[in-house]
Write a structure and sequence with these properties.
This protein is mainly alpha-helical. Among the domains are: about 240 residues, no CATH class; about 55 residues, Tetratricopeptide repeat domain (Serine Threonine Protein Phosphatase 5, Tetratricopeptide repeat), CATH 1.25.40.10. It has 24 helices and 3 strands.
């Protein structure tokens, strides 16, 4: 089954409306394999219906945060994937099988990366502790309908349908024990990953107060993760009894930068105008100068961006990632030597930064140094293996290097990561044609094709 899932879901929901068939499916626990398939089909349907934030800085920031938490979890049961949906409402949700979605509205509402990490960690526990499989009504069909229905309800349109979807999700609601486990394990992973566990409490307290002040218009996240003072009390106790502490050393938080990128996507002209006014009020302050530089860059005003970023660097050379921004800007102003110098400075401080490697790869491409470009993209892939764009660019670089076997191979990897299974198999078959019959590489490719076909 490739793409018909979404159509199927809508048809079935409508059918349910007609015959009131809620609650009918027999209980049967999902296997891990089934969960992974549901995850993929959900992603395929979601890509057709939802708008994703496709910005390397946002995607790689979230991916990096999530990988850090997964490292703390240790026993990873699923091929996790993380996505940011362009949607102002405050929400986050997990789909069985390890796909986790954050709304951009959630990122806009958190005050620190630690707060965002607390939500990510909570959702990871729901998946990794197999909460979905333990839901009593968790047959395949209800699971898919419930999850799809609730989260795609806003785009489905008709209110009745949305209401029905919410009713279905009630069947899928996690038990209080599951919520408690997600909270408790979540904060301990948070602490182990070097985030501040107290951030989970801060975030919940703020949401709680906001809801008290404005009970109407409660964000969707609170519908699926009911927030009570008991839940907050439990979390506070859990942090205390486990002796979880704030990390002693901290990097400068990148959340402000990420929020700015998201804001700029929503309404670039208005945001740049606001940044310009803020800068005019404090022309000698480093951060407003820097932010305006980012605003100019996001709207393609590269000369203005260069002026602001260089000025910010003079005012405060310690702004994190400033050299990365400068390097990227110099690519656009055709000052390639300066771009190299900026990326070198950045990589000296943060050798593992996938975003710097990505921009450096683009710089090498511009210089037609495709071998070096491929090297940079391989580094991106090393730090962010599930980000499809790195594989796509690698495929392009190898095509330029006249290595069609590798070119098709990496293109196939990018299709796989985008769940375009047919195209992935196509590209793998093409890659296979470029290898000798007894080459080990050919064996790898053939095994991969077989595994994809078996996974259906
Ligand atoms: Zn939850």
């Amino acid at each position: 089954m490739r793409m018909p899932l979404y159509g199927l879901a809508v048809v079935s929901v409508v059918a349910c409306l007609a015959v009131a068939c809620l609650g009918a499916p027999a209980a049967h626990a999902l296997s891990q394999q089934e969960e992974i398939r549901i995850s993929r089909e959900f992603r395929q349907a979601a890509r057709q219906r939802l708008k994703f934030v496709e910005d390397p800085e946002v995607e790689l920031y979230v991916d990096g945060m999530a990988r850090r938490i997964l490292e703390a979890v240790g026993n990873i049961r699923y091929p996790y994937r993380f996505f940011v949906i362009q949607d102002d409402s405050m929400n986050a949700f997990a789909v069985p099988g390890g796909s986790i979605f954050l709304h951009s509205g959630l990122i806009e509402r958190v005050e620190t990366s630690d707060e965002l990490a607390s939500v990510v960690a909570h959702e990871i526990v729901h998946v990794n502790a197999r909460h979905f499989a333990r839901l009593s009504s968790a047959s395949d069909a209800t699971m898919l309908l419930g999850v799809l229905g609730v989260f795609l309800a806003p785009v489905l349109g008709p209110a009745a349908l949305a209401g029905q979807a919410v009713a279905m999700s009630r069947q899928l609601e996690f038990s209080r024990q599951m919520e408690e486990q997600a909270d408790n394990l979540g904060v301990s992973y948070l602490a182990r990953a070097g985030y501040d566990p107290q951030a989970a409490v801060d975030f919940m307290n703020r949401l709680y107060q906001e809801r008290t002040l404005n009970p109407v218009g409660s964000p969707p996240y609170l519908m699926t993760h009911p927030l009570t003072d008991k839940r907050i009390g439990n979390l506070v106790a859990s942090i205390r009894t486990r002796g979880l502490r704030r990390p002693r050393f901290r990097d400068v938080d990148e959340i402000h930068r990420v929020k700015l990128v998201i804001e700029l996507r929503n309404d670039p002209q208005a945001v740049v105008e606001r940044l310009r006014k803020a800068h005019d009020r404090h022309p000698e302050a480093a951060m407003p100068t820097y932010s305006l530089g980012i605003g100019y860059a996001a709207t393609g005003r590269w000369i203005g961006a260069r002026a602001m970023l260089e000025r910010a660097a003079r005012l405060n050379p310690a702004i994190p990632n400033l050299d990365r921004d400068l390097g990227r800007t110099y690519i656009h102003t055709e000052e390639l030597a300066k771009a190299h110098a900026a990326f070198d400075r950045m990589l000296k401080r943060k050798p593992d930064d996938p975003i710097t490697h990505l921009y450096r790869g683009q710089l090498f491409e511009k210089e037609s140094r495709f071998r070096q470009a491929a090297g940079s993209y391989l580094r991106v892939r090393q730090f962010a293996p599930s980000w499809p764009e790195a594989a796509r660019r690698l495929g392009y670089a190898y095509r330029k290097l006249n290595q069609p076997g590798k070119a098709h191979y990496y293109l196939a990897q990018s299709y796989l990561l985008r769940d375009e299974i047919g195209k992935a198999i196509d590209s793998l078959e093409r890659a296979a044609q470029h290898y000798e019959p007894d080459s080990p590489r050919l064996q790898v490719i053939e095994d991969e094709i077989a595994a994809i076909r078996a996974g259906g």
